[in-house]
């Protein structure tokens, strides 16, 4: 049996998430341009992630509302990979709580 496809840190190839943890590919990262992490790009939503360390908790304005998030970093090389949603202000966004955003530019898929 083939091992499951993994999404790995593009920098050091540490496995971060598995294919069956991928919830959505339709995310765009558009963080508050006046905030500290102005950037845009495609991102994936995952139900779980491993081999990561968390940065400081912070509030951030995304298109869909205000969230409390924590940046996530590769535990091996320290590269910033995305963030975890800790809390969502909008009731219809609550499903994102506890889930992980990985930026496509920071991960690569391995089969
Ligand atoms: Zn890494």
TrEMBL record:
One Pfam family from the record: Yippee-Mis18
Residue span(s) of domain Yippee: 5-111
Family listed: Belongs to the yippee family.
GO molecular function, one term: metal ion binding
Keyword annotations from UniProtKB, A to Z: Metal-binding, Zinc
Entry-linked PROSITE patterns: YIPPEE (PS51792)
Record-given protein name: Protein yippee-like
PANTHER family referenced in this protein's UniProt entry, alphabetically: PROTEIN YIPPEE-LIKE CG15309-RELATED
Record-linked InterPro entries: Yippee, Yippee/Mis18/Cereblon, Yippee_fam
């Amino acid at each position: 049996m083939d091992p499951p496809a993994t999404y790995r840190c593009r920098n050091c190839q540490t496995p971060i998430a598995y294919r069956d943890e991928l919830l959505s590919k339709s995310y765009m990262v558009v963080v508050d341009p006046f905030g500290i992490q102005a950037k845009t790009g495609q991102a994936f939503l995952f139900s779980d992630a491993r081999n990561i360390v968390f940065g400081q908790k912070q509030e951030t304005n995304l298109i869909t509302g205000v969230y409390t998030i924590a940046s996530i970093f590769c535990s091996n090389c320290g590269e910033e990979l995305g963030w975890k949603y800790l809390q969502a202000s909008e009731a219809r966004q609550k499903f994102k709580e506890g889930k992980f955003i990985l930026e496509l530019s920071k991960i690569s898929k391995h089969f």
